[in-house]
Structures are given as structure tokens and as C-alpha cells.
Design brief:
The protein is mostly helical. The protein is built from three helices and no strands. The radius of gyration is 18 Å and the shape is elongated.
């Protein structure tokens, strides 16, 4: 069975591969391929690292919910909202940084 962290890891790897490919596309085929492999591997690594962050966050939220009974299920809802924001924010920041650095002169 495929879980959410596997999907996130795969998406991060694909986004990283695409960013690397687009970065190197106007340099050379070798540079494009090398950049796509390196940035794709970094994307997979970030996805796997987030899996550990998710585990630690869930255990922290569970302890918080046990300590403060009045939070109840709202602690889990808060954890899910934060987790979704992190999942969306990392590729958005990577794409924004890529777009900012990928400035090339206009063709004449």
C-alpha cells in the first residue's frame, strides 16, 4: 500500500528533476542531465527527510494532546494543517527560487 509520505517523496523527486532539467536546458545536454539528476536526488532526500519530521511531529502533537486534554482532536487537526502547509511550501519556494535565478537575456 502506498502512503502519503511515499507520494510526497516521489513528487519532490519529480519536481527536483524538472527544476534541474529546466535549469540546464539552455546550457548543454550533459549539464541539463547532471543538474536534473542532482536536484532530483536532493528532492527525494528532502521527501525522505520530511517522513522523519512527520513522525517526530506526530509524536510531539500526541504528547501535547495528552498533556492538555482540552485540545482533544484539535491538536491533530493543527498538526495536519501544518504538515500540509510544509508539503506545499517547500516545492513552491524551490520553484520561486529557480524562477528568480533562471534569468537569461532575451533573444534579439
Amino acid at each position: 500500500m502506498v502512503n502519503l509520505s511515499d507520494i510526497v517523496t516521489f513528487v519532490y523527486g519529480v519536481v527536483g528533476f524538472a527544476i534541474g532539467w529546466l535549469w540546464g536546458r539552455h546550457r548543454s545536454n550533459a549539464a541539463s542531465f547532471m543538474a536534473s539528476v542532482i536536484v532530483g536526488a536532493a528532492g527525494f532526500a528532502v521527501g525522505k527527510g520530511l517522513e522523519w519530521v512527520q513522525i517526530l511531529t506526530e509524536s510531539w502533537i500526541d504528547k501535547l494532546g495528552q498533556s492538555y486534554k482540552f485540545l482533544g482532536t484539535s491538536a491533530n487537526v493543527l498538526a495536519n494543517v501544518i504538515w500540509c502547509a510544509v508539503i506545499i511550501a517547500i516545492p513552491a519556494i524551490a520553484i520561486a527560487a529557480f524562477r528568480k535565478t533562471d534569468r537569461r537575456p532575451a533573444a534579439e
